[in-house]
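Shipment paperwork, digital attachment
Item: protein structure file
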Amino acid sequence: MTHRIRRRSTELRLSLWRNLCTATFVPVLLLCQNIASAALFESKKRKLARLHAELARLEEERLESLVVLFGYEFDKLGFYTATSIFLVLFVASIVQLSRSRRKWKRLAIFGGEDSTMSQSTEYRKGWLSSKRNISLLIAASIFSFYVIFNLGRATKPSIGYNKPRKRGPSRGDERFVLVFGTYLDETTFYSLLVTSMVVLVALGYNIGSACRKFQESKRSKQATKLNSFPKEDVIDVIIVDCGLPKKDIGWFHLMQFLDMSNINVRAVVEPFYLDKGKCPQPPQSFLDLITVLEDLGVMCVKSLGQLDPCQRQTLCVLAGRADKSPQYFRECVGLGATHIYLEPPGSTSVGELKTMSNVANVRGVQVYMGYHKPCSPYIEEAIRLSQSIPKSHVFFCHNENYFKQDLHRVLNRHPEGMIRSMASQELAVLVTQFGVTTDSIKAFKVNTNKLFSEKQTFFNKTNGIEVSDFSRVAFKIMTTNGRSVSVMADRCGGMVSFAVVKSIAGKEIKKFLSPDGDSASRIEDELKRDTEMMHQFTIEGEDYMELKRRVVDSILGKEDDSKTSRSVISIQDGIEVLKLSNFCTNEIESALH
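Attachment content:
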């Protein structure tokens, strides 16, 4: 009985499980059968519609990651990155082209057939020249175009309509680089890397240029502030190329400036005797001078580069040889000098002097030429008298107190020649007071008698070279406006110079001497007491001092227009004087030959 009951309950449970499985799996099997039959026996129209929908979805996904430009497909990341880089390069190119235009302008100012560009200045030629900069930027621009074109070709997705692009590195022919979580193909990556380096170099160079321009602007602002200083302030003076005591004009300028109350001698620059490599044992007189100057608080250096930029009105006195003046001039301008005193003739060529004048105009520097004869009393008196007599003739005679055996030393000290160094003093008077220029000369006559004009040749035992120069000259100039002026210069003519005013008939009206009377006897006594001093320093010392007073008054705004403005020679007049000197030299040489 019990056994039957157990068997009955087991059969009931089995039937329940059988019914449950039948109710569950039969619908599932029917559903699978329906799906399979729909796929296997799908109509052609429905299948085409489904495929077109799939293709449209894939095309939409593909176009979302591309930019189409001029028929070319570019990856969005590469396109916008390369476009941004190109825009940066384009802006940098425009900036550099504008800067290069200004550089060309500076090259036009500093360059030229007769000009020499100092290597110590910011306007030097080299690998940073404007033409090379422009070439580099044009090459960078072409390179950026190349990168943009090939970047699109490299980043064009190589996916099919039935093969969507994966979000990871593929195992096929394409190779990718992971950058900040984004996969880039190798061509795109390296193109972006190289272009970024070009951008960084261009930006670094322009940032450096901007920093230099900022420093220059600060210096220029400091220089412009100098004009607002009180007029009673003293002027800083820097003597360039001082030379030896009692022998060189730089030392003579130094001594006179030290005697002036409104002058502060800031520094003395001596490139030879203070350079142990060039002069291991300077003369004792120079060492004594340096000791005295250091006790007075005057800096003594071998180059202008050792000095700090000028902080107030500064007058740089260039007392070196004419061939060194352009280099010193640019260094003084770079130092921030507001005024420059140029020892005549200022340069060896007209082109260089014009370049210096252009630099001074650009930088706002006022330049004075050291022609002292227009300040001499006997010259001024002769000019006043000649202006009061119509069609009068003036004869200027300039003498120096050298011996014939010393002329070769004079030529070594003034290699530019007697006309450009000595007779140019009278030529400066002709340019500023009589309006004589090379264009206004109607006739030029040379007195070829050896008593008045003579050229000598000297043999330099040091280098074995023969050099020639005039020992004395005499000539007459007639201008297109009817004026006639005569000039005579003699290296060995003695210590007395004079000016004679004559009537139209050639009769002497009055003669003016320098020195005259008591001054002549006093100077003779001084020359006897101090035999080491250069004679011309003693003879023409008052003229030099008067010129310095007028220059200082002009700087401080205290000049008298009727007196100072016409006797202080500007660099523009200095250019005309040098032109006239060259003209006279050529005419006299032709006449003597």
